Request: fold
Amino acid sequence: MRLGCINHAVLSAEAIRADGLELVGWVANQAVPEMARFNENLATLTALMPAPLLGSIPHLQRPNSESAAHYLDLGLLPLKAATTS
Reply:
């Protein structure tokens, strides 16, 4: 969630779709402690992205996968039925 994040995220979603893939979710993260208009950018992205927001990770002093996972809701990911051939 930095300057240019809206443009980058929307273009990335379009590239994923253009490659025939499905974007199933996205994550916002606050890389720096203070960011101007964080909430406004988050609201804009939530409205524009063609997939659910899986979580918003705040700035963490010592980021790692365990501490970041606390802020994610992977239950929002769509479940696809497994197929066998």
About this structure: The helical segments are 5-18, 38-48, 65-69. Residues 5-62 form one domain. The mean pLDDT is 90.
